[in-house]
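A student in our group prepared the protein record below, which I am reviewing. Thanks in advance; the entry in question is below.
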Amino acid sequence: MLIRGAPRPIGQVEVGMEVLHERCAGLDIHIKTVVACVIVAGPKGQVRKEIRTFSTMTDDILLLSDWLASNGVTHVAMESTGVYWKPIYNILEGNFELLLVNAQHIKAVPGRKTDVKDCEWIADLLRHGLVRGSFVPDRPQRELRELTRYRTTLVRERAAEVNRLQKTLEGANIKLATVASNVLGRSGRAMLAGLIEGAADTATLAQLAQGRLRDKIPQLERALKGRFGQHQRFLLTQQLEHIDYLDRAVEEVSHEIEERLRPFDKTIELVDTIPGIGRRIAEILAAEIGMNMERWPSARHISAWAHLAPGCNESAGKRKSGKTGKGNPWLKSVLTEAAHAAAHTKGTYLSAEYHRIAARGGAKKAIIAVAHSILVITYCMIKRNETYRELGSNYFDEIDKKAVERRLVKRLERLGNEVTLAPIAKAS
């Protein structure tokens, strides 16, 4: 069902303001309906505004597209409302210049609020060029994003199920996790299978250990001694089956992602050489930021978009909190994960950066700084098609050796020492 609104004159928002788009539309999107406002400028400067309401079913969205085209609309702005904008965007894409706008950037003046006023406000802002579209990748990259994000969800669900399994063992007085580092390793799975089958002899179960875990057989015998009931056998069986299913699902999704990224294998291998980044993280970065770095004018632009650069908040000559915003949660979480891994590497620039910042700013600020560096390195490597060049752990010391010497000498002098520096003679 569609409802046609009567044409009405444009509001006073255009007074004294330059008009950039003569034929444009604003969409207010909901789960069931989308309210559209078309603004068209006539040959003599008169302005016509028309509003209609469509359902979000595919056939009605096609009618919306035809109606916009019949009015000669060139630009369409819509609010990024959850995932409800995606069906509209998918159908209108390619026919109009689409702008997906952040809801925080288009809040109307407080007062009466209706769907009609919302779409009018969006159209008015678009007409005068007062809105900025968010980055929306092309369809192949959007599909790749859905795959990588779904895989991340599966991995998180598997971790949650492993935690639930561990709670079941704790409730049965089984302390296997205190002895074995991986409860679901080959040894752990064999012991869990024995418990499910009803084995009660802890010595027999402990003998199922393999590799280095056999050195802990006495501890395993104590850890496997508990009160394993029938309901816990049932729960453990269900949990192991669920974990196996998730493992298979992750493997299948990973295979699909690998096939889609096959044309970019060389670039993925380049990104994989950065400390802290593995194949999975490189694939996620490819899905979130893409392989075409031309859309980002510089590393500063992509850092600001990812909200990994410090914010600018100054008033009356005082700098206030410049903490980063939320940004893309999928990108930010994977970069943070990579930063944690890079911080634990040895002899690398990223590890040195982490320890240098953590000493004076704390671990959290240091992790965000390393995540920012990894994003910048990734951007430069992909754009220039260059391999990763390790600067080394002494990079910051080499920048200004004299400053490092002065700082260390003052520190020793404060401890009551007299320091004399002499260079080490180089061996001939």
Observations:
- Strands lie at 3-4, 23-29, 33-41, 47-55, 75-79, 97-101, 314-315, 318-319.
- Residues 5-15 have pLDDT under 50 and may be disordered.
- The radius of gyration is 30 Å.
- Residues 179 and 220 are 7 Å apart (CA to CA).
